[in-house]
Design brief:
alpha/beta, about 350 residues, Rossmann fold, five-stranded parallel sheet, 2 domains, six-stranded mixed sheet
Length: about 350
């Protein structure tokens, strides 16, 4: 691309005018793009204003675009889904990266991903794998509190979205979490696991905290003082009575959000069982939802999982059937909502 190559600005507004003044120092701003039909077909500072479809028809998808709009996050996603990759977010950077060369201005667009993950669903593995495969960074903490009462932090999510980081947390669809997700995302990914197996795995996870002397995490569980003196089957009884229903509610409430017309983002539901049994199908559905090449997930093979006595112990989907007694299974099944969970294949 030549020093005086053509550039286009998305946003026929005050921000677009500022971007034009800066870009005009070293390139030729050919035209503006805008989603507002009142502006399209007019001139803005002597440059024509195109709608996105008209721009693509006239110029294709390869020429560079600088986004100069407060709606830059949504516009980024709009351009990415239309196949435009030669894009610079002038609004987010506020011109700080503009210099004498063009290469530093061009960034590949990665999808905006928020992974809402149920605990004990291999979410830690997914969260470590995705940045590696997609070539982006990740922000591991975007909420405060403790399970199951995590609430998103607006500024942390905002900062992660601005940097196009992959974000994730174990969040219920509380009112504040729904508001913040709707503010920044047009789609989210919800990952679940059979509550009966998740309950058994969660028990082991608490045991791992004790073994690693994670006293703060243990304290947040608010367990009975005598808990650590109980035999394993009594501890399992306790978690069937007190923990399993939380996992049931996690899946059920997110299913209800999918049915709620007031929640803007589309939802992709995936489950641990598919991740274990058919990774190809699992990754293909994720890739299709985010309009990315599924081959990305095959590059460099799988990331190794560190197996331990409590974390990533066996990776089984139905270990609970062998560990729980018949009475425990009956009590666990009584808490399940099988009519709601049919799509996940969770059976008595």
């Amino acid at each position: 691309m030549s020093q005086r190559g053509k550039w286009f600005i998305f946003g026929a507004s005050t921000a677009g005018w500022h971007a034009m003044r800066m870009l005009d120092e070293w390139c030729d701003v050919e035209a503006f793009i805008d989603n507002d039909p009142v502006k399209t077909g007019t001139l803005f500072h002597d440059r024509p204003v195109f709608g996105l479809d008209a721009f693509i028809d006239a110029y294709g998808t390869e020429l560079p675009i600088a986004i100069a709009s407060s709606s830059h996050v949504a516009i980024y996603e709009q351009l990415r889904l239309r196949g435009l990759r030669n894009v610079f977010d002038w609004y987010a950077e506020n011109g700080s990266r503009i210099n004498d060369g063009n290469d530093s201005l061009v960034s590949s667009l990665s999808p905006l991903i928020y992974l809402v993950a149920q605990p004990k669903s291999a979410s830690s593995y997914l969260f470590s794998m995705l940045p590696t495969k997609l070539g982006v960074s990740a922000k591991p903490c975007t909420a405060g509190g403790s399970w199951p009462d995590f609430n998103l932090n607006y500024r942390l999510v905002q900062a992660g979205v601005k940097r196009r980081q992959i974000l994730s947390h174990h969040i219920f669809p509380t009112k504040i979490n729904r508001v913040i997700l709707s503010e920044f995302y047009d789609r989210i990914w919800v990952h679940v696991r059979d509550p009966r197996q998740a309950t058994l795995s969660y028990l082991h996870n608490i045991e791992s905290w004790l073994a690693k002397k994670e006293w703060g995490l243990v304290a947040c569980e608010m367990l009975p003082e005598s808990y650590w003196d109980w035999p394993f089957d009594v501890k399992l009884d306790f978690h069937i009575d007190n923990t399993l229903e939380t996992f049931v509610n996690f899946a059920d409430r997110w299913l209800s959000v999918e049915e709620d017309d007031t929640f803007f983002p589309r939802i992709l539901f995936t489950q641990y069982e598919e991740f274990v049994s058919d990774k190809s199908s699992f990754y293909s559905r994720v890739a299709d939802f985010y309009s990315i090449d599924p081959e990305i997930f095959l590059v460099d093979g799988e990331i190794p999982i560190e197996v331990g006595p409590h974390l990533y112990r066996k990776g089984k989907t139905d270990e609970w059937r062998q560990v729980m007694s018949q009475k425990q299974i009956e009590r666990a099944n009584a808490k399940m909502k099988f009519d709601r969970f049919d799509r996940f294949g969770w059976r008595p």
